[in-house]
Amino acid sequence: MMDEYTYPWYQVGFVLTTGMNSAYVLGYPGSLMVPLGWVGGTVGLLLAAVVSIYANTILARLHLLDGKRHIRYRDLAGHIYGPKIYKLTWALQYINLFMINTGFIILAGQSLKALYLLISDNGAMKLPYCIVVSGFVCALFAFGIPYLSALRIWLGFSMVFGLIYMVAACVLSIRDGVRAPPRDYSIRGDPSSRVFTTIGAAASLVFAYNTGMLPEIQATVKPPVVKNMEKALWFQFTIGTVPLYAVIFIGYWAYGNDTSEYLLNSVQGPVWIKAVATLAAFLQTIITLHIFASPMYEYLDTRFGSNRGGPFEMHNVVFRVGVRGGYLVVNTLLAAMLPFLGDFMSLTGALSTFPLAFVLANHMYLVANGDRLSSLQKSWHWLNVVGFTVLAVIAAVAALGLIAHDSKAYHIFADV
């Protein structure tokens, strides 16, 4: 069930900011800065932010088109292009969300393993086991939260959890960085491997800022919808980026090329602080996954669910257990088999974020506005369409190459 005109712009801005500052940020110092270095990583983050806010803004302006609201990505594409592109957009969006959800379960598993290692060092709790436990907890949360609107109070908890692990990561990283000897910030690897890692990191740059579900989020903004959504986007890309950049730059500064793909594995300090931060990252991941899984849940509920009775009627609870549980089982199985978080971010950026957030957004704006655009404006949007299409293809090849490489280096269900 899609919420309508529920939230003021600043609350939607917090939703966008929460998604962007999820526990994924703990992986960015290692997955973005290590392969790109100071110059490439910094310039890349800023350029990705500029193109992302531009693409999201023009997409937000298509919310009211031909006198009709479009509250789902696929509905907007279907209105502009017809049923074939409707189906393609639907597929791209759910591939995007499925892979984001899989990454969240990997993150939750990494957090749980890190927490376990703070308590015991016997090595009995392997990463795949932690991922399975995390998937089970995610499923329990999905059973109890029927709609996105039911997350109201949980969004507050999510923000608190996020602040805990980001502040802890930054403070402990600064403490380690001040005490550490000079770090190595050079880009490692032979030229052939650098090509894959650099392109993969570039795909992860755009992944860091984009949700792949902007029309669905915009459907919850109070009128005036377009103006308020633009306010929410500016909030996300200004104030909202401060904690993101703090974790990325401080984490990389403190550990250089030795930065882990999960920053809390690199930091030193009091065990209780690390434990609280790690637990906060685990809990926030459970909540944020639900935000990104909600479009899939909404589709499944609408397509196969029952509208009889309240959300906690027995038949509706049983439906959620069966359908949402089945969906998360697939996510969890894939996460446990291939727990390569950086590779997943790169592949998600290549296969879905580039096409949805940049290629499709620019082309839809071009088609929808037609003759109202000048020749220069049309050329600009075509340049974006062609350029990001080429980047998406190159990034997909690089990401698949990284996954193939890591799959050879580690067996499936690896304890990485």
Mean pLDDT: 87
Distance between the termini: 39 Å
- Give the name of the CATH superfamily: Amino acid/polyamine transporter I
Query: What characterizes the major β-sheet?
Result: 2 strands, antiparallel
The CATH topology comes to Amino acid/polyamine transporter I
Radius of gyration: 21 Å
Order of helices and strands: HHEEHHHHHHHHHHHH
Q: Can you tell me about this structure?
A:
There is one protein chain. The chain starts with 8 loop residues before the first helix and ends in a 7-residue tail after the last helix. 75% of the residues lie in helices and 1% in strands. The protein has a two-stranded antiparallel sheet with strand order 1-2. A hairpin with a 2-residue loop joins strand 1 and strand 2. It has 14 helices and two strands. The longest helix is centred in the N-terminal third of the chain and has 37 residues, at 83-119.
Topology:
Layout: H1 9-20, H2 28-60, E1 64-65, E2 68-69, H3 73-81, H4 83-119, H5 127-144, H6 152-179, H7 191-209, H8 214-218, H9 225-237, H10 241-255, H11 271-304, H12 314-337, H13 341-369, H14 375-409
Antiparallel strand pairs: 1-2
Helix pairs in contact: 1-9, 2-7, 2-9, 2-10, 2-13, 3-4, 4-5, 4-11, 4-12, 4-13, 5-11, 5-12, 6-10, 6-11, 7-13, 7-14, 13-14
Core attributes:
about 425 residues, mainly alpha, Amino acid/polyamine transporter I
Short description:
By secondary structure, this protein is mainly α.
